[in-house]
Amino acid sequence: MGITYDEERKRYIVRIRRRGASVKKSFVTKAQAEAFQSAAMQQIFEQGDLGKKRRYTLDEALDRYLDDEVPNHRSNDRVKSNINAVLEFTEGLYLDQIAEAAARVRSAKRKSRRPIPEQETPEQRKARLLQLAKLKPLTPATINRRLAILRRVANLAYAEWHWLDRPISIRLLPEHNQRHEYLTAEQVDQLAAACREPANHMTIIAAYTGMRRGELLGLTKANVRGDSIFLGLTKNGRPKMVPISAKVRPALEAWISADKPDPRTIYKYFRAGAKAIGKKSLRFHDLRHTTASFLLNMGFDLATVAEVLSCTIQNAQRYAHLSMENKKHALNAITSSGGQKSATPMPKARKMPNKPS
């Protein structure tokens, strides 16, 4: 590898030879030749051989994604958690084998939380294997969050990092696990009464504001400004103002001044309260759905629901069936009354004078 000057051609010549491959290129100026030589040396350092790309491992790609992309992500803790879950399926794989890692993720099952004893008896091992066999597969939503990590890495590796020669498609699973449960106002009060403090206060606030669990857990006195709750950065990346109703204020004051345990314990209190009122499958996020049902039952449209919940109108469409039920109820009321009862009587048509003949 070197630079020579051809007196006859008045050109600087760069010759590079590496493991049988050779490159020869001429330049008008020495600076151009040195720049080309430097780029070639960098290529050899990064890719191993001239004209041949280095084969990166999948773990290297995930490390770069973790360093370059995740710090700028709003939900970086959740993304890191999903990356850690994905790493279990990437051992021994190269980046161009990312589709195989995706196949492993799709077939993953829930992990057993029971520790394996250091000296396991045959009976203990048999019981552990039986317990592992009974573990249910992960939900499509959980699997898709992990597949989304692999898909993003594959796209970056091809389009921006140039670590792949061709794009690789990562297919997500269809999600059919959307299950919404709605509470009545009476059931919300029963649930709050059944929850230990401070989960009882959190329940009331969530049901009557539509706030997310993460927003509530990070709530402090500084967020309360007069008759509103101010949230500087929400899930959708925009600030949010939540009006404080008379129903919410006592619970809000108790919540922000409470000595709270860790979030896992608070959720445990909520789950125990839900079980106590016969709602064993109730999730905390269902309180957000309950807020939407309250609004629609009171006659507000989906645009208002989207504004209150701070979500897009497309996401609010998941509650369209509730809106349709309200419309059906209204039309049935018209049918049953024969159209005779009206809050505002229709004005009689004005009789027009006959035209002169």
Model description:
This protein folds into three domains: 46 residues; 102 residues, no CATH class; 151 residues, hpI Integrase, Chain A (Orthogonal Bundle), CATH 1.10.443.10. About 3% of the residues have low confidence. The longest helix is centred in the middle third of the chain and has 20 residues. The protein is mainly α and 357 residues long. The chain is built from 15 helices and six strands. This is Site-specific integrase. GO terms for molecular function: DNA binding.
Proportion in β-strands: 5-15%
Spatial order of strands in the largest sheet: 1-2-3
Under CATH, the homologous superfamily of the largest domain reads Intergrase catalytic core
Helix content: 40-55%
Helices and strands: which structural class?
mainly alpha
What is the typical, i.e. mean, pLDDT? 83
Poorly predicted spans? 342-353
Overall tally of domains: 3
Shape: elongated
CA(first)-CA(last) distance: 110 Å
Q: Helical element count?
A: 15
CATH architecture verdict of the largest domain: Orthogonal Bundle
Region (Disordered): 106-125, 335-357
Biased composition (Basic residues): 348-357
InterPro entries: DNA_brk_join_enz (IPR011010), Integrase-like_cat_sf (IPR013762), Integrase_catalytic (IPR002104), Tyrosine_recombinase_XerCD (IPR050090)
GO molecular function: DNA binding
